[in-house]
């Protein structure tokens, strides 16, 4: 016997044809719930707890180490109880170790490259999602393959081109370098989000008198808010944490926070106190940004996983 189904119809297009229907099989949903009960659910919780410990403990240890004195942070036995001190943070902003220019460079390079990648990737992804042409799937895969290429394979040709163009040790050069791997990712991800929006919604807006641009701006973009937030945050995190491109294309005038952290590891030793402090400065802004937009971030990542594009 065929399992009962529930059918939802969001409406009709301008020519009267029905929109895409979503069929939900209650029997399948009940089966999934049964499979998640008992030992399966316990196993899931064990994996979640282990993943939480694996993720949180190093960050917590780094945060605690940033408030320890040099003697406490290099102690042979871990010290859980200590007198908090800000000497590591103060040392990062005094003398020759002034971290201010590194923070400014990181904010400008990561922020501007993420914004430009999001804007251009949104336009390119929308065009790719709405264009009907032969080989569209191959083109989409080629775009994301440029993001998956090893950095070592592209960094030398880029360095030669940047040197000829005079972009080495400049912020525009660093922004352009970040966009070489953020823009393909943004295009591919936004194309997947736009493909989930029925074209009939835009057709209805055009019937109501909207132009193509108005339908895109006032109808499509608000519906893809979770995709925009997800793509923007991921592009920002990729650029903020980058070390390979920054160590190649940046110089004394454009070095970023990851470069500053690497300079604390020298042949004479490692300043663990300041290293944990600068690690905290690098991690905290991205954690706050992720928590601030976690609702759209989870929705966007889930939708991207469902599309399978």
UniProtKB/TrEMBL annotation:
Residues 103-293 form the ABC transmembrane type-1 domain. It is found in: Cell membrane. It is a multi-pass membrane protein. The chain crosses the membrane at residues 42-64, 102-127, 139-162, 174-194, 215-240, 272-293. The keyword Nuclease does not apply. Residues 1-22 are annotated as: Disordered. Belongs to the binding-protein-dependent transport system permease family. MalFG subfamily. It holds the Pfam family BPD_transp_1. Keywords: Cell membrane, Membrane, Sugar transport, Transmembrane, Transmembrane helix, Transport. It comes from the Bacteria. The keyword Metal-binding does not apply. This is Carbohydrate ABC transporter permease. It comes from Saxibacter everestensis. Residues 1-16 have a biased composition (Polar residues).
């Amino acid at each position: 016997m065929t399992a009962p189904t529930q059918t939802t119809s969001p409406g009709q297009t301008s020519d009267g044809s029905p929109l895409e229907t979503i069929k939900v099989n209650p029997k399948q949903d009940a089966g999934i719930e049964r499979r998640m009960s008992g030992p399966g659910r316990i196993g899931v919780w064990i994996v979640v707890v282990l993943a939480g410990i694996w993720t949180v403990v190093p960050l917590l240890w780094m945060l605690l180490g940033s408030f320890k004195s040099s003697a406490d942070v290099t102690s042979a036995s871990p010290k859980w109880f200590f007198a908090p001190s800000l000497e590591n943070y103060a040392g990062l902003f005094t003398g020759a170790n002034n971290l201010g220019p590194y923070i400014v460079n990181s904010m400008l390079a990561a922020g501007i490259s993420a914004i430009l990648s999001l804007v251009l990737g949104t336009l390119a992804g929308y065009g790719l999602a709405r264009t009907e042409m032969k080989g569209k799937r191959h083109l989409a895969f080629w775009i994301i393959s440029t993001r998956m290429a090893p950095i070592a394979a592209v960094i030398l040709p880029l360095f030669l081109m940047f040197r000829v163009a005079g972009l080495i040790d400049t912020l525009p050069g660093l922004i352009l370098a970040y966009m070489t791997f953020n823009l393909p990712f943004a295009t591919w991800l936004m194309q997947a989000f736009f493909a989930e929006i029925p074209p009939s919604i835009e057709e209805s807006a055009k019937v109501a008198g909207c132009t193509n641009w108005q339908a895109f701006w006032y109808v499509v973009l608000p519906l893809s808010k979770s995709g925009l937030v997800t793509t923007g945050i991921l592009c920002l995190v990729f650029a903020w944490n980058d070390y390979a491109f920054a160590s190649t294309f940046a110089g004394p005038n454009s070095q970023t926070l990851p470069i500053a952290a690497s300079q604390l590891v020298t042949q004479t030793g490692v300043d663990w106190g300041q290293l944990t402090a600068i690690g905290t400065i690098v991690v905290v802004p991205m954690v706050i940004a992720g928590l601030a937009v976690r609702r759209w971030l989870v929705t966007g990542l889930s939708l991207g996983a469902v599309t399978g594009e």
